[in-house]
Amino acid sequence: MKMVSLRHFRESDAAVLLENGNICTSVEEIRDTICNWNRLIFHGKYYEMFAVIDGNQIVGMISLYQLSDSVISVGPEIFPVFRRRGFGAEAMRIALDIAKGKGYRIALQQVQADNHASIALHKSLGFETDGYGYVNRKGNEVYIFLKSL
């Protein structure tokens, strides 16, 4: 089993995010983003962003975002070079446990219809879907996945 852990990002992690993440800005802008993440609130709702750690190395990131008093969304992003090694599944398990500990009862995910790896990941973690695809507000065809916590 992987020894994955989660922790909050630190300003010193900015260079790693610039190199590996989808945040295409300067180190200074990433540091500001990290400060905002660590406020634990976004648009007036609970939001928490974690670094996904293997040993001492950041291999990705995962967020928890409150959709309602009982529903949470979990957003994993494993850096491309580290994918297909089980980090996403382990990070999701840990994040779902954190969400459950905070009193959330349902995890709800929008997964892009063409993201076969994410669909397989969610199914392997016990998420369910009716398989009905729809176009979200960003114009992407997505499926809704649900899991009771």
Can you put this structure into words, describing what you see?
- By secondary structure, the chain is of the alpha+beta class.
- It has a domain of 103 residues: 3-Layer(aba) Sandwich (Aminopeptidase), CATH 3.40.630.
- It has four helices and eight strands; from the N terminus they run βααββββαβαββ.
- Strands 1, 2, 3, 4, 5, 6, 7 and 8 form an eight-stranded mixed β-sheet that branches.
- The two termini are 22 Å apart.
- The mean pLDDT is 91.
List the helices and strands and how they pair.
Layout: E1 4-8, H1 14-20, H2 27-37, E2 41-42, E3 45-54, E4 57-66, E5 71-78, H3 87-101, E6 106-112, H4 116-124, E7 134-135, E8 141-148
Parallel strand pairs: 5-6
Antiparallel strand pairs: 1-3, 2-3, 3-4, 4-5, 6-8, 7-8
